[in-house]
Specification:
1 helix, alpha+beta
């Protein structure tokens, strides 16, 4: 099983053949490789699912919220 973290693309980083983007992940900006999704170029404002620094899937805001809610739920574990 792999975990994917949702993030919103803020900007495409100059150079790098348009394969690097600055992505907002819960308020923190990270550089993410978007090269796997280049069949239909990513634009600022789009949501992606990130795994190990790579954008592996497109999503929308609803999908991003659902993914984040699932991650938060998993982080809680069993409550004593």
């Amino acid at each position: 099983m792999c975990l994917g973290i949702p993030g919103r693309v803020v900007e495409i980083v100059e150079g790098y053949d348009r394969q690097l983007a600055l992505v907002d992940v819960s308020g923190e900006r990270r550089k993410v490789n978007i090269g796997l999704l280049q069949d239909d170029p990513i634009q600022p404002g789009e949501w992606v699912i990130i795994h190990m620094g790579l954008a592996v899937e497109r999503t929308d805001e609803v999908g991003a919220r659902q993914a984040l809610a699932g991650l938060e739920l998993m982080g809680r574990g069993e409550q004593p």
